[in-house]
Specification:
Layout lengths: L5 E6 L5 H13 L3 E6 L5 E3 L5 E3 L2 E2 L10 E4 L5 H7 L1 H12 L3 E5 L3 H6 L7 E2 L13 E2 L4 E4 L2 E4 L5 H12 L2 H10 L4
Parallel strand pairs: 1-2, 1-6, 2-5, 6-7, 7-11, 8-9
Antiparallel strand pairs: 3-4, 10-11
Helix pairs in contact: 1-5, 5-6
Length: 185
């Protein structure tokens, strides 16, 4: 029996391009199915550095019963735009209630914190967003797994963040092997 692992990476106007594309790229290298989901109502989404990305599908057409993980790239105003999307926020709360995976990097962990899903978890974020990690124990590592939550600090550590997702969904050896092949130190 082949278990299909499906990850939904969410794109809002102003997303951090390095983070979003790194996540999608690394997970696909690890043979994890990834769908790029737009929350803008349009398949094409413009990042914080004016790079346009064509996503796979719109939020309103996505079947979240197929997803094992919701991922939020950071960037500004991208993280704010993710937080403004009521449908996505409801799915995040639902995933936490059903003990499904949540992951956010850079400014985006603030979305998880403001929604109250970081309670008693260890979390990291982009410097200056710590006050939004409500109920979490704040750490300062590049990326961290705590319970069913993965958080990362920013664009620089986005490779390590993506590899933590691989570690969580596959295993540590696959993550280490991938890091070695990609020359991640």
């Amino acid at each position: 029996i082949i278990v299909l692992i499906m990850v939904y990476v969410h794109f809002a106007t102003g997303f951090e391009e390095i983070e979003a594309i790194t996540i999608v790229d690394v997970l696909r290298r690890a043979k994890i199915d990834v769908k790029m989901i737009s929350v803008t109502g349009e398949l094409e989404v413009i990042g914080s550095h004016h790079i346009s990305v064509k996503t796979d599908e719109l939020f309103e057409n996505s079947d979240y019963s197929l997803a094992q993980m919701i991922v939020l790239p950071g960037g500004l105003p991208g993280a704010h735009n993710l937080y403004k999307h009521k449908g996505l926020c409801a799915k995040i709360v639902e995933f936490k209630a059903h003990q499904k995976w949540l992951a956010a990097v850079c400014a985006a962990p603030y979305v998880l914190g403001e929604l109250g899903v970081l309670e008693n978890e260890i979390a990291v974020c982009f410097p200056g967003f710590e006050k939004h990690l409500k109920g979490a124990y704040v750490a300062y590592e590049p990326a961290i797994i705590s319970g069913k939550t993965i958080t990362g600090r920013g664009a620089g550590p986005s490779l390590k963040f993506a590899l933590k997702i691989v570690e969580a969904l596959k295993d540590e050896e696959i993550s280490k092997s991938l890091a070695l092949k990609m020359l991640v130190e």
